[in-house]
Amino acid sequence: MSQLRLLPSRLGAQALRLLAPRDVQVFNWCSRSTGPPATFPSSKHGGGSSYMEEMYFAWLENPQSVHKIRGHHVAQLDPLGILDADLDSFVPSDLITTIDKLAFYDLREADLDKEFQLPTTTFIGGSEHTLSLREIIRRLESTYCQHIGLEFMFINDVEQCQWIRQKFETPGVMQFSSEEKRTLLARLVRSMRFEDFLARKWSSEKRFGLEGCEVMIPALKTIIDKSSEMGIENVILGMPHRGRLNVLANVIRKDLEQIFCQFDPKLEAADEGSGDVKYHLGMYHERINRVTNRNITLSLVANPSHLEAVDPVVQGKTKAEQFYRGDAQGRKVMSILVHGDAAFAGQGVVYETFHLSDLPSYTTNGTVHVVVNNQIGFTTDPRMARSSPYPTDVARVVNAPIFHVNADDPEAVMYVCSVAAEWRNTFNKDVVVDLVCYRRRGHNEMDEPMFTQPLMYKQIHRQVPVLKKYADKLIAEGTVTLQEFEEEIAKYDRICEEAYGRSKDKKILHIKHWLDSPWPGFFNVDGEPKSMTCPATGIPEDVLTHIGDVASSVPLEDFKIHTGLSRILRGREDMIKKRTVDWALAEYMAFGSLLKEGIHVRLSGQDVERGTFSHRHHVLHDQEVDRRTCVPMNHLWPDQAPYTVCNSSLSEYGVLGFELGYAMASPNALVLWEAQFGDFHNTAQCIIDQFISTGQAKWVRHNGIVLLLPHGMEGMGPEHSSARPERFLQMSNDDSDAYPAFTEDFEVCQLYDCNWIVVNCSTPASYFHVLRRQILLPFRKPLIIFTPKSLLRHPEAKSSFDQMVSGTSFQRVIPEDGAAARAPEQVQRLIFCTGKVYYDLVKERSSQGLEEQVAITRLEQISPFPFDLIKQEAEKYRGAELVWCQEEHKNMGYYDYISPRFMTILSRARPIWYVGRDPAAAPATGNRNTHLVSLKKFLDTAFNLQAFEGKTF
């Protein structure tokens, strides 16, 4: 029983402390009243009857205030009965009823049987309007202090709080029909017997089973059932590896023989790439929901052991599916994320993802989060793994209600999950279900947990499985018979055995069966491109001009723009008249032309609307009307595809993961993420390593996401200079030692075989073409672009319409086109370079008058390496020394990547000399003078025609 403590929501604790001892008679009078009198006595404090009226209703609210705010602290949540879910065994004094406590408030035991009129703010009475104090407390304890612990009173919306209270306080709400109980039992049978079957057949295999939280399968199915009932047609799931195979089998309903095939070490993969372990794979499946008889599509996103990395990916994929369906309110598409307790509290990407939940261009209109709370992380006790009471406390930042539930009470779990699904589809907000459970085995099936958690695992070994406990309960109450229960078990065991037999007939393992994002119609029936060609990427001049005209104007009337922006628009207008473009205008034309062709374009990142370097200005802001904006790109043509440009939160990990997921949904969209500065991708490295670089190899999943990484040594310091190209090149999968066969379709075949494309464009036209090529290719690969900073306004970094009109294409290599090219036999040195340093080299060459002696060739595409074009250039200048020049330090940048490839293509007959900055630990200096000195030094070396005489390679 719980003691009443004065913590009313209407007066506050401070006001009530004034009651003792001077106003104790007022409190006594209130506590003995059965309803408000016609008149209220006066208070010693003054205030008269209004004060007493306030006191009366405040007191009536006290019991429920205590329980609904703090009841979860004493709820019986741990199935093992040995731990406290909130890491604190202390029971708050205001939740203890003792005679001493009653006496403190001048209450007697007999007062517990006094009848009280219930306020309209509570639902515990049902149809009753008065209850005894004893019954009030009993009902509150039954609601808030048993197997469900509710955290929701921090939500600052009265309607939402009342909605939750009604769902849990109303008497009799947690009643299930016999049919519902039988369905729940059948789902538990499938969940548990699946794990038992795997344990019998592959006892020495890691599978990260669900034992100890078998209730998660019926929990997820309940969420899906309820959501389907409310109109959801597409559910996208993300989860760690624990229980994934069970979810694939019993929630997504993947063929069991395909799962069992994964355990056969003798089967050979028929697909390209390395594949991944079975408990990392995903799945896509359309089926009928048997509870609602409605079609539903379920997609489980593949992800690695970086547990929570999949969270933003799922959100991005969900957002894209909603966008393409026109489902702005999330009525048709939703996401479910399953988490582990230690990861939910410990992984920062969880926080980053939560903070996307209400942002206009990132919201998915609510996610149901299910935490499998093992009460342990690998071997780490939760008291060593988090500082917060619960692992779920991070969800409070977005006012998400948190429902803790004892996972050994299946009916409580089902009710909580049903309410969670209804909450999400009613309020379009996140909600968390915390399944407090245990992990029957160690971190995996080969692990020994007794080393580190002996007391916990002694109790776990004694613990009766939830299936047996629930079956015994239903048998005892007559809902099912023992025979029916045993027949249900035998039926599913037979299904598993038959599937096991069929799995032995599978000769080849196809990872394509595990795709989580199929693109119907994009590839042919065998999953290969329809053709291995790429059309020219140029566009008609009238289209260029039209886009340029819109880019240099304001489509809306009476729209006041900033005077500085007026100058920028006039500058664009002048360029159009001169048939030239700068970097920003080239990007505008690439995007606009794709929109005309029906390709959705989405650009996301920190400050991308204006551009970090104030060059883009894709969103115009009215200077006189707050929050009135204009996106001219959406006013190009009446029937164009939509353009989305959105400033993101100050997150890289979460936002890049989101955009990756968005790009998964459709191949007919150009999805770009721009880092504020190139090296800021550091904090998103997990997404790059685990999903972008390796995604196709592990999961045969094509993805066309584009990373825009501002890069360039301009003396801005080590954190604003290098996008670390060496990292991307090191992860590129083209073989430096393999001499390629130069076929007619060499360029496209190279692109098809690579894991991603890495470019550093030196001209706006190159940037324009590579963006368009990204969509016109018959397949999708990630594209890494090292974009410029100083070149955005460099007077020489402009391109003519002639380089962008119909018939033109992306040039992987831009050869020398000056005096040196006209007399190649007289050239003494051929300098290869990429990106911004080209302009420094041209300027230095001109100042030294070496235009005829030195040729400069630019690599626009670095990976896959343009072997064919490099060979042509080297052969053209047969008598020239070959030099690679870069502005980055020698141990960074491109040299370690290009050097062995030059050796391969030149058969080691000619060395490729390095010119650039010396090796260093930091990517750039923060001292402007040091930067200029090192720049001058390597430029002098580049044009010193005697620099390498007498040296051996």
Key phrases:
disordered N terminus, seven-stranded mixed β-sheet, Rossmann fold, thiamine pyrophosphate binding, alpha/beta, 4 domains, eight-stranded mixed β-sheet, thiamine pyrophosphate, single chain, Helix Hairpins, 953 residues, 28 strands, ODO-1/KGD_C
Task: Give the arrangement of secondary structure elements.
Layout lengths: L12 H5 L6 H8 L16 H23 L28 H6 L10 E3 L12 E3 H12 L3 E4 L6 H12 L8 H24 L14 H14 L4 E5 L5 H7 L5 H6 L6 E2 L13 E7 L4 E7 L9 H16 L7 E8 H6 L1 H7 L12 E7 L8 H4 L16 E5 L3 H18 L3 E6 L17 H9 L3 H12 L4 H22 L4 E2 L31 H11 L11 H15 L2 E2 L1 H14 L3 E6 L14 E2 L7 E2 L12 E5 L5 H13 L3 E6 L10 H8 L2 H5 L6 E5 L14 H6 L15 H8 L3 E3 L4 H13 L6 E5 L11 E2 L12 E2 L4 H4 L6 E5 L3 H12 L5 E6 L1 E3 L3 H10 L4 E9 L5 H11 L6 E6 L10 H15 L11
Parallel strand pairs: 4-7, 4-8, 5-12, 8-9, 9-11, 10-11, 14-17, 14-18, 18-19, 19-21, 20-21, 24-25, 24-27, 27-28
Antiparallel strand pairs: 1-2, 3-10, 6-7, 13-22, 15-16, 20-26, 23-25
Helix pairs in contact: 2-3, 3-5, 7-17, 7-18, 8-15, 11-22, 13-22, 19-20, 19-21, 21-27, 22-23
Distance between the termini: 86 Å
The CATH homology group name of the largest domain: Thiamin diphosphate (ThDP)-binding fold, Pyr/PP domains
Helix content: 25-40%
Overall mean pLDDT score?
88
GO molecular function, one term: metal ion binding
GO biological process, one term: tricarboxylic acid cycle
Cofactor: thiamine diphosphate; Mg(2+)
Enzyme class: oxidoreductase
Tell me what the structure shows:
The chain has 953 residues and is of the alpha/beta class. It has 4 domains: 13-146, Helix Hairpins; 198-514, Thiamin diphosphate (ThDP)-binding fold, Pyr/PP domains (Rossmann fold), CATH 3.40.50.970; 541-711 and 760-803, Rossmann fold (3-Layer(aba) Sandwich); 814-942, Multifunctional 2-oxoglutarate metabolism enzyme, C-terminal domain (Rossmann fold, 3-Layer(aba) Sandwich), CATH 3.40.50. 37% of the residues lie in helices and 13% in strands. It has 32 helices and 28 strands. An 8-stranded mixed sheet has the order 3-10-11-9-8-4-7-6, sandwiched between helices. Strand 24, helix 29 (837-848) and strand 25 form a beta-alpha-beta unit. Helix 7 (178-201) packs across helix 18 (482-503), helix 8 packs parallel to helix 15 (410-427) and helix 19 packs antiparallel against helix 20 (563-577). The longest helix has 24 residues, at 178-201. The chain is elongated. The model is unreliable at 1-49 and 55-60 (pLDDT under 50). GO terms for molecular function: metal ion binding; oxoglutarate dehydrogenase (succinyl-transferring) activity; thiamine pyrophosphate binding. One of its GO terms (biological process) is glycolytic process.
